[in-house]
Amino acid sequence: MQSYARDDGNWDLEAELIDVKAYDFPKRDGEMFKAGQPIHHMHLRITIDENFSIVAAQAVYDAAPYGEHCKAIEPAYTDLIGMNLLKGFRRQVKERFGHVEGCTHMTELSQVLPTAAVQTMANRRRQEINPNRRPFQLDGCHALSTGGPVVAEHYPEWYTGGSAEASADSTSDSPSFSHTS
Fold it and tell me: Whole-angstrom Cα distance, residue 83 to residue 86?
């Protein structure tokens, strides 16, 4: 994943997949895929606005196992335009590009876009943060559980667990075993 801020306030994100094998293997037509030669090499490029809505989309194959047959699906991925990365995006992608309506690998590649966009725009969101508003990332993963030690330390006003001291004690690196001879 790569992301880039644009002068117009939008963001470009590019997801890339490269599939290379360490061994030769035959294609169905008798030719060979050579070790180190990409079988799949694809890019999914999108432009998003500040609301995480896709305003441009492009799918591109540099290498594909079935050549032009795989590449024929590229134009379909412009249908990502108008989707919002934070509002049912993964479900919409599966519905629109499932089975023969898309490329399995390109569709799977699209699934990282919401996370990449949030990480890309995190610093901007931090700069605009309202200290009275609960941070969006809390309870989004196990480390940021509002009942856990990370929230107790970094977001104490949103901590819902026991005392911060008890939480810190439970994550101590000190071993709690004894040795007997």
Answer: 9
